[in-house]
Amino acid sequence: MYLITKEQFEQIHIAEGSGRNWYGELLDLGEADGYKIRTFTNAGIRSANMPSAKYLEVMAEGLRETYPHKSPAEISQYITEHLVDLEFAVG
What we know:
This protein has helices at 6-16, 53-66, 72-90; strands spanning 25-32, 35-41. By secondary structure, it is an alpha+beta fold. It folds into two domains: 6-41, no CATH class; 53-90, no CATH class. Strands 1-2 form a two-stranded antiparallel ribbon. Helix 2 (53-66) packs across helix 3 (72-90). It is globular. The two termini are 29 Å apart.
């Protein structure tokens, strides 16, 4: 989670593919420290697939930055548990 401006969020949304067939759905996820939390998703428009090794590295780096008190093993476990969820959803 990153604190960015509305304009930055819109730029990222456009860059990541804001069209109806990619990341067309915006979601409000609540608030943290008085800031609204929003994201965008494909919400099932496309079938789920496993992330690449490079993307897994990016996720781990983001988790390390966000939760510096977590050990590498805890971060790996978190990612692995969520990949199991994804595998189950994919079938």
